[in-house]
Structures are given as C-alpha cells and as structure tokens.
Amino acid sequence: MKIVVVGGGGREHALAWRLACGAGQRPRADRCVVVVPGNAGIASFFRCRGLSAATCDAVMKVVVDEEPDLVVVGPENFLDLGVVDACLAAGIPCFGPTAAAAALESSKAFMKDVARAAGVPTADFVVVTEVAQAEAFLASRRDRGVVVKACGLAGGKGVVVCDDVDDARLHLQEFLAGRFGDASRTVVLEDRLSGAELSVFALCDGDDAVVLGAARDHKRLYDDDTGPNTGGMGAVGPLGDEEGVSAAFLEDVRQRFFVPTLVEMKARGLPFRGVLFAGLMFDGTQPSLLEFNVRFGDPEAEVLLSAFDVDLVPVLLAVARGEPLPAGLRFEPKLKVAVVVVAAPGYPEAPERGAPITGLYRAQRQPEVQVCCAGVSAGSFGLVVDGGRVFAVSARAQTFDAALDFAYRAVDRLHFEGLQVRRDIGNSVRRRIA
Ligand code: AMP
Ligand code: GLY
Q1: CATH of 196-320, one of 3.40.640.10, 3.90.180.10, 3.40.50.720, 3.30.470.20
Q2: Taking residues 69-85, what's their average pLDDT?
Q3: Which of 158, 214, 355, 432 satisfies CB 3.0 to 4.6 Å to 150 for a cystine?
Q4: CATH class of the domain defined by 2-97
Q5: Model's pTM, two decimal places?
Q6: Ligand nearest to the CA of 162
Q7: 101-125, pLDDT tens digit by residue?
C-alpha cells in the first residue's frame, strides 16, 4: 500500500505518521508513505519529493510518477487548486473535497448561503460588494457588534470583530477597496456572537458524517490570547465531558451542523467527501457556526491523529473511492493530547529564516512525545528555521496536565535564536487540583 500525502507542514507530518502506523505506534512494514513536498524534518522519517512549483500540475507530475494507491491532501490551497479533481480524473483515489466543494472554506458567502439553506445555526448576515448595500443591515445593528469578513481566503487575517457599526463601516470600506485584494472585494457582514470557541472535526462521505473529535486551538501569538492572529500556536483535545463537550453534544453537532450541510451540498451537485472542520462558538446554550474549513486543522490534526487507535487508511480509501464510511466507525479516544507550537522570530508578519536548530533529538526522546516538523530546511550542520511555524510538539497522556507537562518538557529542549512559544496552551482545560 503506497500513500502520497500532499503538503509540507506539521499536519502532514502527523498525517504521514498516522497513515504509516495504522492503528499502532510503529510504521507498518506493508505501508509506504511519500510526502509531497514535505520538508527536511519529515524527510528523516518519510521519503519526500520536492515540487517544481506550488501548482496542481507540479503535484500531479509527482503523483502520477509514484503510482500510489491513495492520495491524501492536507492544505486548503492544494484543494482549491483542484488536486483532488485531477487525481480522480487520472483514476487515482484521492481523499479530500473537489475544488468546487472546497468553496465551503474558500468562499464565506457560499458557506453562509449553504448554512442558511441547510438550516445550520449561524449568525445573521448580509453579503455586500458596495457600502450602500450594507446600510440597512448596519442601521438595524446600532446597539450591537458586527463582524466584517473578507469572502475569500485571506491567510486567516480577513476577519475583524467590531464593537460598533461605525467601526464596521470603516473596515468595510477598506475591505471593499481591496485590503486583501480580490479576497475582500466581496464581504460578509454578520452579527457578533460571544462564547467559547470549539473546533469539531468530522469525516464525511458525501451523505453521512462521523465525528473525529473536538479540539481547542490557540490562535493568538501571545499568552492570554493577546497579540496578532496566527495559524495556531497550540491546541488541546479531544475535548470530553470534563471540558463540557459530551458525546451527546457532539452527536447534536453532527445532526444539526454536519448532516444538513452534506444534504445541501449533495442537492447542489457538490457532494462533500473529506474532513469537514466546523469552527463553532458556544455560549452555553446554543452552538453557532463561525466557519467551515474543508480539511484537518493545523495544529488540531496533530492533536486528533494521535488520540485514537483507528487505522484511517481503509476509511480514507473508501471515501476517496466514493464509497460510504465503514458501518459502525467510531472514534473513542482514550488519551488526551496537547500540542505546543514553536514559531520563528518575526512570525506571523515577517518570519526570519536561517537560524540553526539544536535539541531536536533530545526533544523527541520521550515516548509520549512526537515532534512534527513544519518550517524547517537542511542547513550545513543540521536543520535550520525555514518558516513561520517551525515545530508542533505533540504529547499524549491520561490527562491534559500530564500531556502538557510532557509537551513543554520537550519544547524546553528545542532551541534556536528568537524562538517564540506560548506558555499557556491548554490552561482553559487543565484540571484544577485543589
Ligand atoms: P473565522 O475565520 O470566520 O472563523 O473568524 C476568525 C475568528 O474571528 C474566529 O475564530 C472568532 O474568534 C472571530 N469571529 C468570527 N465570526 C465571529 C462572530 N460572528 N462573532 C464573534 N467573533 C467572531
Ligand atoms: N488551526 C486552524 C486552521 O488550521 O485553520
């Protein structure tokens, strides 16, 4: 069984590892995983093949050459470029949504339209391309907050949460004038919600969904959720009863968010096959959908993929072939996982590259710990920093407290000049010991 994983970050490192190991913790002899393009850190565990360009054609050249039994696409840009469509056209099973179905992430206007048609709970909204179209909505929101969202992909920066409508109007004008280029020439304005944020992941076969689990991301750069937004500085999960996320809650999310969305997508001729990631806000009474992503999150993938012992290969292969999810498939995690991201100096605005990295060998020596490599490349004497998020250090244990201790112990063994790390990952779920 040969599997090609497309992507080159910590998420793809975790995916490659999980797919290679099946339900266990050691790579299986009957599995070959190739990562395209991967990175210099992943290359110490798996064969990596570089790309001549970040295009669908360049990916397909390598994929066709490898003749894999299964392709799994990690990042949204390759989904958006149509890698899944191209693989399917070439007769190669590929796990992930088609480019048209991936619009659930790449167009917030499309996502809101699908959610409204499907009856999925989400904030009231309007879609506008001119300020005048927003006036009626803004006038009716005088006494509450409004959120301004670029319709297209804006690298996680295209959302501004505004306290009042005047502030919202100013941001709206800037967005429409092209603050994020074409991505913000269409804008979604929506009601501001409040509550705790939660990411819920489901495997979808076009008709049905099985929940993989829930995780909590830490998006801001600094402790106590301050500083600029990032791709994610750490995550904890799977969340369970103790964190207020019961099996009944997840089943309710499956029935009221995932399944109606799949039904609506199918009715539009866009059956969704792949991982659907719902970003929810939960005020204690009613969860509401903030966004859909059409892939595993990063670093949430590093959390969820090491939390359960299900062999994903037959599951992803079935979905890639257009078959239903295996009957009785359940993800029942026994362990808690913490992931702490180690980022480059200057991340997220202007990451500085080139600093030599030490301590990786010692960091990954604990059996509970896996260091997923992201922004690294090969220097003259070992790995050097080569991107914003450098490592995602993941640790599993019986409790979040223990997992976080393992993860931070490993983090403290890693070193490079200007390293950035949050010290408060998981504080919201740490069990308080009196
Ligand atoms: P999104 O990319 O749509 O998930 O938005 C990014 C972040 O903006 C979310 O993680 C929330 O923290 C915040 N946000 C988005 N929509 C809302 C909303 N309607 N009310 C309050 N905060 C929001
Ligand atoms: N960690 C959030 C994301 O992958 O979009």
Answers
A1: 3.30.470.20
A2: 97
A3: 158
A4: alpha beta
A5: 0.96
A6: 1
A7: 999 999 999 999 999 999 999 999 9
